[in-house]
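Quarterly update, task 2.4: copper (II) ion-bound model.
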Amino acid sequence: MSAEPRRRVLLGVGIPLAAFVFLAVLILAFSRILLAVPESLAPWVALLFATNILVGCALAATIRGTRGFAFLIVVLVGTILGGGIAGAVIGERPVHSLVEEAAGPPEPPPAPPAESPPPEPSPTEEASPGEEEPTTEAPGGGAVPIVAEGVAFDVTELSLPAEGEVVIAFDNRDQGIPHNVSLYSEAGDPAFQGEIITGPATIEYRFPAPPPGPYQFRCDVHPQMQGTATVG
Ligand SMILES: [Cu+2]
Protein backbone atom coordinates (compact mmCIF):
# COMPACT_ATOMS: atom_id res chain seq x y z
CA MET A 1 0.00 0.00 0.00
CA SER A 2 2.68 2.51 -1.04
CA ALA A 3 0.80 3.88 -4.05
CA GLU A 4 -1.87 5.67 -2.02
CA PRO A 5 0.47 7.84 0.09
CA ARG A 6 2.45 8.79 -3.01
CA ARG A 7 -0.76 9.78 -4.82
CA ARG A 8 -1.80 11.89 -1.88
CA VAL A 9 1.58 13.64 -1.81
CA LEU A 10 1.46 14.24 -5.56
CA LEU A 11 -2.03 15.70 -5.35
CA GLY A 12 -1.16 17.71 -2.26
CA VAL A 13 1.73 19.40 -4.03
CA GLY A 14 0.51 19.20 -7.61
CA ILE A 15 -2.92 20.77 -7.27
CA PRO A 16 -1.74 24.00 -5.54
CA LEU A 17 1.23 24.21 -7.90
CA ALA A 18 -0.96 23.75 -10.98
CA ALA A 19 -3.47 26.26 -9.63
CA PHE A 20 -0.69 28.77 -8.99
CA VAL A 21 0.76 28.43 -12.50
CA PHE A 22 -2.75 28.52 -14.00
CA LEU A 23 -3.63 31.72 -12.16
CA ALA A 24 -0.25 33.28 -12.94
CA VAL A 25 -0.73 32.64 -16.64
CA LEU A 26 -4.29 34.00 -16.51
CA ILE A 27 -3.22 37.14 -14.67
CA LEU A 28 -0.34 37.69 -17.07
CA ALA A 29 -2.62 37.19 -20.07
CA PHE A 30 -5.27 39.47 -18.61
CA SER A 31 -2.68 42.18 -17.91
CA ARG A 32 -1.64 41.97 -21.57
CA ILE A 33 -5.23 42.61 -22.61
CA LEU A 34 -5.62 45.60 -20.29
CA LEU A 35 -2.32 47.09 -21.45
CA ALA A 36 -3.16 46.66 -25.13
CA VAL A 37 -6.64 48.22 -25.10
CA PRO A 38 -7.00 52.00 -24.91
CA GLU A 39 -6.71 53.44 -21.45
CA SER A 40 -10.33 54.58 -21.32
CA LEU A 41 -11.52 51.13 -22.32
CA ALA A 42 -9.45 49.11 -19.87
CA PRO A 43 -11.82 49.43 -16.85
CA TRP A 44 -14.77 48.25 -18.98
CA VAL A 45 -12.79 45.30 -20.27
CA ALA A 46 -11.89 44.39 -16.70
CA LEU A 47 -15.54 44.73 -15.64
CA LEU A 48 -16.62 42.58 -18.57
CA PHE A 49 -14.24 39.81 -17.62
CA ALA A 50 -15.22 40.03 -13.97
CA THR A 51 -18.86 39.65 -14.97
CA ASN A 52 -17.86 36.75 -17.20
CA ILE A 53 -16.18 34.98 -14.31
CA LEU A 54 -19.14 35.63 -11.99
CA VAL A 55 -21.74 34.41 -14.51
CA GLY A 56 -19.53 31.49 -15.52
CA CYS A 57 -19.09 30.36 -11.96
CA ALA A 58 -22.83 30.77 -11.27
CA LEU A 59 -23.66 28.70 -14.34
CA ALA A 60 -21.07 26.11 -13.40
CA ALA A 61 -22.68 25.81 -9.99
CA THR A 62 -26.13 25.26 -11.42
CA ILE A 63 -25.27 22.98 -14.34
CA ARG A 64 -25.24 19.40 -13.37
CA GLY A 65 -22.28 17.25 -14.18
CA THR A 66 -18.75 18.25 -15.02
CA ARG A 67 -19.13 18.66 -18.79
CA GLY A 68 -20.86 22.04 -18.62
CA PHE A 69 -18.37 23.24 -16.08
CA ALA A 70 -15.44 22.12 -18.22
CA PHE A 71 -16.98 23.82 -21.25
CA LEU A 72 -17.35 27.11 -19.39
CA ILE A 73 -13.80 26.92 -18.06
CA VAL A 74 -12.43 26.26 -21.54
CA VAL A 75 -14.36 29.18 -23.04
CA LEU A 76 -13.40 31.52 -20.23
CA VAL A 77 -9.76 30.54 -20.07
CA GLY A 78 -9.51 30.39 -23.82
CA THR A 79 -10.88 33.91 -24.12
CA ILE A 80 -8.44 35.32 -21.61
CA LEU A 81 -5.44 33.43 -22.97
CA GLY A 82 -6.32 34.29 -26.56
CA GLY A 83 -6.84 37.93 -25.70
CA GLY A 84 -3.61 37.93 -23.72
CA ILE A 85 -1.61 36.55 -26.63
CA ALA A 86 -3.22 39.06 -28.99
CA GLY A 87 -2.46 41.85 -26.53
CA ALA A 88 1.16 40.76 -26.27
CA VAL A 89 1.44 40.78 -30.06
CA ILE A 90 -0.19 44.24 -30.39
CA GLY A 91 2.07 45.60 -27.70
CA GLU A 92 1.54 47.94 -24.84
CA ARG A 93 0.10 51.36 -25.33
CA PRO A 94 2.26 54.16 -23.95
CA VAL A 95 1.80 54.22 -20.20
CA HIS A 96 1.89 57.57 -18.44
CA SER A 97 3.59 57.34 -15.11
CA LEU A 98 2.22 59.30 -12.17
CA VAL A 99 5.68 60.77 -11.62
CA GLU A 100 5.69 62.30 -15.10
CA GLU A 101 2.19 63.71 -14.64
CA ALA A 102 3.16 65.23 -11.28
CA ALA A 103 6.19 66.85 -12.88
CA GLY A 104 3.93 68.78 -15.24
CA PRO A 105 4.13 69.08 -19.00
CA PRO A 106 7.52 68.41 -20.54
CA GLU A 107 9.76 71.41 -20.99
CA PRO A 108 9.47 73.13 -24.36
CA PRO A 109 12.36 72.39 -26.68
CA PRO A 110 15.25 74.82 -26.39
CA ALA A 111 14.79 77.92 -28.49
CA PRO A 112 16.89 78.03 -31.64
CA PRO A 113 20.13 79.94 -31.17
CA ALA A 114 19.59 83.66 -31.47
CA GLU A 115 22.55 84.07 -33.73
CA SER A 116 21.82 82.94 -37.19
CA PRO A 117 24.69 81.15 -38.91
CA PRO A 118 26.83 83.47 -40.97
CA PRO A 119 25.73 83.56 -44.59
CA GLU A 120 27.79 81.36 -46.77
CA PRO A 121 30.32 83.27 -48.80
CA SER A 122 29.32 83.31 -52.39
CA PRO A 123 31.58 81.01 -54.38
CA THR A 124 34.29 82.84 -56.19
CA GLU A 125 33.50 82.89 -59.82
CA GLU A 126 36.19 81.23 -61.79
CA ALA A 127 37.60 83.53 -64.40
CA SER A 128 37.29 81.88 -67.74
CA PRO A 129 39.34 82.95 -70.71
CA GLY A 130 37.66 85.43 -72.99
CA GLU A 131 35.79 87.15 -70.20
CA GLU A 132 36.80 90.53 -68.95
CA GLU A 133 39.37 90.13 -66.22
CA PRO A 134 39.36 92.30 -63.13
CA THR A 135 42.18 94.78 -63.15
CA THR A 136 43.85 96.10 -60.06
CA GLU A 137 45.33 99.50 -60.42
CA ALA A 138 47.31 101.48 -57.94
CA PRO A 139 44.94 104.13 -56.61
CA GLY A 140 46.73 107.43 -56.75
CA GLY A 141 50.19 105.89 -56.77
CA GLY A 142 49.46 103.87 -53.61
CA ALA A 143 49.93 100.19 -52.96
CA VAL A 144 48.57 97.68 -55.47
CA PRO A 145 46.52 95.16 -53.54
CA ILE A 146 46.55 91.48 -54.40
CA VAL A 147 45.05 88.63 -52.42
CA ALA A 148 45.90 84.94 -52.47
CA GLU A 149 43.04 82.72 -51.30
CA GLY A 150 42.24 79.13 -52.14
CA VAL A 151 45.58 78.81 -53.92
CA ALA A 152 44.53 81.51 -56.39
CA PHE A 153 45.05 85.20 -56.83
CA ASP A 154 42.01 87.46 -56.71
CA VAL A 155 43.13 89.23 -59.88
CA THR A 156 44.48 88.07 -63.21
CA GLU A 157 45.71 91.47 -64.34
CA LEU A 158 47.91 93.96 -62.56
CA SER A 159 48.61 97.54 -63.62
CA LEU A 160 51.85 98.88 -62.19
CA PRO A 161 53.35 102.36 -62.30
CA ALA A 162 56.31 102.86 -64.63
CA GLU A 163 57.94 105.51 -62.47
CA GLY A 164 59.27 105.61 -58.98
CA GLU A 165 58.55 102.79 -56.61
CA VAL A 166 56.11 99.95 -57.06
CA VAL A 167 54.26 98.96 -53.89
CA ILE A 168 52.32 95.69 -53.85
CA ALA A 169 50.23 94.97 -50.77
CA PHE A 170 50.09 91.18 -50.73
CA ASP A 171 47.54 89.41 -48.53
CA ASN A 172 48.01 85.66 -48.21
CA ARG A 173 44.80 84.34 -46.67
CA ASP A 174 45.60 80.65 -47.13
CA GLN A 175 46.13 79.11 -43.72
CA GLY A 176 49.46 77.29 -43.67
CA ILE A 177 50.11 77.71 -47.39
CA PRO A 178 53.14 79.69 -48.63
CA HIS A 179 52.72 82.15 -51.47
CA ASN A 180 54.52 85.11 -52.96
CA VAL A 181 54.22 87.48 -55.87
CA SER A 182 56.94 87.67 -58.47
CA LEU A 183 57.22 89.59 -61.69
CA TYR A 184 58.74 88.15 -64.86
CA SER A 185 59.47 89.70 -68.21
CA GLU A 186 58.10 88.14 -71.38
CA ALA A 187 61.49 86.49 -71.83
CA GLY A 188 61.08 84.87 -68.45
CA ASP A 189 63.63 87.00 -66.63
CA PRO A 190 62.68 87.92 -63.08
CA ALA A 191 61.98 91.62 -62.64
CA PHE A 192 61.08 91.17 -59.00
CA GLN A 193 60.74 88.21 -56.65
CA GLY A 194 58.71 88.76 -53.53
CA GLU A 195 59.42 87.11 -50.22
CA ILE A 196 57.43 83.92 -49.67
CA ILE A 197 55.03 84.23 -46.73
CA THR A 198 52.88 81.54 -45.18
CA GLY A 199 49.27 82.52 -44.59
CA PRO A 200 47.51 84.06 -43.05
CA ALA A 201 49.95 86.94 -43.42
CA THR A 202 50.40 90.20 -45.27
CA ILE A 203 53.45 91.85 -46.69
CA GLU A 204 54.22 95.00 -48.60
CA TYR A 205 56.55 94.48 -51.54
CA ARG A 206 58.49 97.61 -52.56
CA PHE A 207 60.78 97.74 -55.55
CA PRO A 208 61.85 100.23 -58.22
CA ALA A 209 59.55 100.37 -61.18
CA PRO A 210 60.80 98.12 -63.96
CA PRO A 211 60.93 99.26 -67.57
CA PRO A 212 57.46 99.70 -69.08
CA GLY A 213 56.03 96.77 -70.88
CA PRO A 214 54.08 93.55 -70.42
CA TYR A 215 55.05 91.22 -67.61
CA GLN A 216 53.80 88.08 -66.02
CA PHE A 217 53.17 87.93 -62.30
CA ARG A 218 52.97 84.64 -60.48
CA CYS A 219 53.47 82.76 -57.26
CA ASP A 220 56.80 80.97 -57.29
CA VAL A 221 55.43 78.18 -55.08
CA HIS A 222 52.41 77.66 -57.31
CA PRO A 223 53.26 78.64 -60.89
CA GLN A 224 49.65 78.06 -61.90
CA MET A 225 48.83 81.15 -59.84
CA GLN A 226 49.67 83.72 -62.46
CA GLY A 227 48.42 86.62 -64.50
CA THR A 228 49.58 89.48 -66.63
CA ALA A 229 51.06 92.68 -65.30
CA THR A 230 51.39 95.86 -67.29
CA VAL A 231 54.01 98.40 -66.35
CA GLY A 232 53.36 101.83 -67.75
CU1 LIG B 1 51.41 80.12 -54.03
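Highlight for this quarter: Residues 167 and 206 are 5 Å apart (CA to CA).
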